[in-house]
Design a protein that fits this description.
Radius of gyration: 23 Å
Helix content: 40-55%
CATH topology of the largest domain: Aspartate Aminotransferase, domain 2
Number of domains: 3
Strand order of the largest sheet: 4-12-11-10-9-5-6
CATH class of the largest domain: Alpha Beta
Distance between the termini: 29 Å
Largest sheet: 7 strands, mixed
Oligomer: single chain
Strand content: 5-15%
Structural class: alpha/beta
């Protein structure tokens, strides 16, 4: 319980502000593996007594750690180390010693030739310096027309709606947390969801209500029960190729969820970053247009570094959202927006999406072949799959063992809205591998470990 405090006196010499020194000590202990996922921290009063400091100081440190997703607290049980901080380390991992299947992203090599051509064209155009100037609020007329073109292609209802341009989907989520909800508000999400949703809720002190799922995603009846028992302000849904479970809502399921949104008068956030992989299905926000925000970006379909997101909202929220954009990033990059315009109007963005989808389908076939004796959820062109582990394995144990074998995956612990839910599963990103040969090697290691009896 106390090992992580070694070096406390030395830390105070480096950082004389008491609460900052203690927080840095805790943060380092977690990142360096001195404290592990699930470890219980000392009670506030006990730690304060041992160090001879005020209880309020310990409380301040624990609250900051909780906002940053390092720990979580359970009333009557104490504070525990969460597993989420391990994920950024996995995402950043580089080098030949690890094949990183822990982050969902498109195959960047597909976009490279298109990118080279359009960047060359931009470099020779007149008025290039204008692309480094302050743009009009909300983007230029060209940027707005590009957004309309892209959203119309995705089948989004944009009539009588406002369009804001943000710095990717994660930024868009942050804008909506701030513009639509307030401190302490309840936000309904899938009970296993994208970690960025969870970290934002922790940082901004919003309460997440996890809704049960089945093979089609969020269950309407479970959502309705939650609406009856909680004062839900906002609902976030990933209706297509949900991260991490890969579930895809049918058209009827989308309609059912939208009806509940309208019945209980809550705001719907349609996070549709993977919608391009199921173009035959309409966005769920189309079924409740007056109460919905539609959010997408080009980071999953084109390039992770193409930080352009489109947020469609009721007009009454336009001013609030634009204010949040100014407060957070001031403005999207004009140069990036110009590149996006070239990719979209040339037709290359659609070609890239199609090629990404085709590669995803090819890699899913590879996964089905290699993991045929494993239990997992996937769809024919999903970027990832959700592998349920055999008895005897926990998510953390399996991912750590794979790491020793040179393969990085994402543990189910990263996606749990309720920390005490124990689900033995991992998410495997198929598109993250640089080549089919690399993916083949990694999947065979996963299959071998899966069938190994503990």
């Amino acid at each position: 319980m106390w090992q992580w405090l070694s070096g406390y006196d030395q830390k105070l010499k480096e950082q004389p502000i008491l609460h900052k020194a203690l927080y840095e000590l805790l943060e380092n202990a977690i990142s360096n593996g001195v404290l592990h996922a699930g470890d219980k921290l000392p009670p506030h009063r006990k730690l304060a007594s041992k160090l001879g400091i005020a209880v309020a100081t310990v409380t301040k440190v624990y609250r900051q750690a909780e906002r940053q997703g390092l720990i979580y607290a359970k009333v009557g049980r104490g504070s525990f180390v969460t597993s989420v901080p391990v994920l950024p380390q996995a995402i950043r991992a580089k080098g030949h010693q690890h094949i990183n299947l822990s982050i969902i992203k498109p195959q960047v090599s597909i976009t490279e030739p298109y990118l080279s051509n359009h960047l060359a064209e931009l470099s020779h155009q007149t008025g290039l310096a204008d692309l480094m100037d302050y743009p009009p609020e909300g983007g230029s007329l060209t940027d707005q027309q590009t957004a309309i073109e892209w959203l119309s292609h995705a089948g989004v209802v944009i009539e009588n709606k406002a369009i804001s341009i943000c710095h990717g989907a994660q930024h868009g989520l942050m804008l909506l947390y701030n513009a639509v909800t307030q401190y302490g508000d309840c936000i309904a999400v899938e009970n296993h969801c994208y970690p960025g949703i969870i970290s934002l809720a922790n940082q901004l002190s919003r309460q997440l209500i996890g809704i049960e799922m089945d093979l089609e995603g969020m269950i309407p009846e479970a959502l309705e029960i939650a609406c009856q028992h909680h004062k839900i302000k906002m609902l976030i849904v990933v209706a297509s190729h949900q991260n991490p479970t890969t579930s895809i809502m049918s058209k009827q399921r989308r309609k059912n969820i939208a009806e509940i949104v309208k019945k209980y008068n809550i705001w719907l956030v349609d996070d549709d970053v993977y919608g391009f992989l199921s173009p035959h299905l309409p966005p769920i926000s189309n079924y409740a247009p007056q109460q919905s925000f539609y959010l997408t970006s080009l980071s999953k379909s084109i390039l992770p570094g193409l930080r352009v997101g489109y947020l469609v909202s009721p007009p009454s929220f336009k001013r609030r959202i634009e204010a949040e954009i100014r407060n957070s990033i001031w403005m999207p990059s004009s140069l990036t927006l110009a590149l996006t315009t070239k990719l979209i109007y040339s037709g290359d963005a659609i070609k890239i999406q199609k090629t990404q989808s085709e590669l995803a389908e090819q890699r899913q076939k590879m996964a089905y072949r290699i993991l045929q004796n494993c239990e997992f959820s996937a769809h024919k062109n999903s970027y990832h799959l959700w592998l349920k582990l055999p008895n005897g394995w926990s998510s953390e144990q399996f991912s750590e063992k794979l790491k020793q074998y040179g393969v990085l995956v994402a543990s189910a612990d990263y996606f749990c809205v309720k920390e005490l839910i124990s689900l033995a599963a991992i998410r495997i990103s198929l598109m993250a591998a640089k080549s089919n040969e690399e993916l083949d090697f990694a999947l065979k290691r996963i299959a071998k470990l899966y069938t190994h009896k503990r």
